[in-house]
Design a protein that fits this description.
The chain has about 200 residues and is of the alpha+beta class. The chain has one domain. About 25% of the residues lie in helices and about 30% in strands. It is built from 3 helices and 12 strands; from the N terminus they run H-E-E-E-E-E-E-E-H-E-E-E-H-E-E. Strands 6, 7, 10, 11 and 12 form a 5-stranded mixed sheet that branches. A hairpin with a 2-residue loop joins strand 2 and strand 3.
Length: about 200
């Protein structure tokens, strides 16, 4: 009789643990489906021959509660958000070969996700945070005359379902889905030599 009672208690405990875990997993999956609390915008810096040398990425809290922004970088990182500058280019002269680059790095034993989130940028409703990079730092090396259409993109940190669930359970809101800015258009004219 005692063994049957213990087995019954174990079954109840396992069922409760499974319910809690499934609720956490569902909340983590819902994160990517809900409307974002953050809007991404890009702003041009100084124009050189009609095209910005630098681009500002503006993260605007459009929610009615605090939102946290993880560290951002043009490099892919497990615990940082990745910013990218997308370029659609139409040349006014014949195309030459493109240029590209990349970066890498890592941390072998980062602190737990709640500890990391303490250092994330906090934005109250309506507040914004801007980070600026030169186009070359964003791996956009095009300099030829033509039409430049630029768009910013933010990819959230590559957190596990469990880490997302822990943040959600702690009431920490952050952009957990890819954000895209509106397009900005610029033209670099073909420079003709003086006669």
């Amino acid at each position: 009789m005692l063994a049957t009672w213990k087995l019954h208690v174990v079954k109840i405990l396992v069922a409760q643990v499974l319910l809690v875990l499934s609720a956490l997993i569902v909340s983590a999956h819902d994160c990517a489906k809900k409307p974002s609390d953050v809007e991404l915008r890009i702003t041009p810096g100084e124009l050189i021959k009609g095209v910005p040398r630098t681009i500002g990425f503006v993260f605007l809290n459009v929610a009615d509660h605090e939102v946290r922004i993880p560290p951002v970088s043009p490099c892919i990182g497990r615990y940082s958000g990745t910013i990218k500058l997308r370029l659609d280019f139409s040349s006014v002269t014949p195309q030459t070969t493109g240029k590209g680059a990349g970066c890498g790095g890592g941390v072998s034993h980062p602190p737990g996700i709640l500890e990391q989130a303490k250092s994330w940028r906090r934005l109250k409703p309506g507040e914004s945070f801007t980070v600026s990079y030169e186009r070359a730092e964003l791996f956009v090396f095009e300099e030829a005359p033509g039409a430049y259409e630029l768009r910013g993109e933010f990819q959230p940190p590559q957190l596990t379902t469990e880490e997302i669930a822990v943040l959600d359970h702690a009431g920490i809101s952050f952009p957990c889905q890819t954000l895209r800015s509106a397009h900005l258009q610029f033209n670099r004219p073909l420079m003709t030599p003086p006669n």
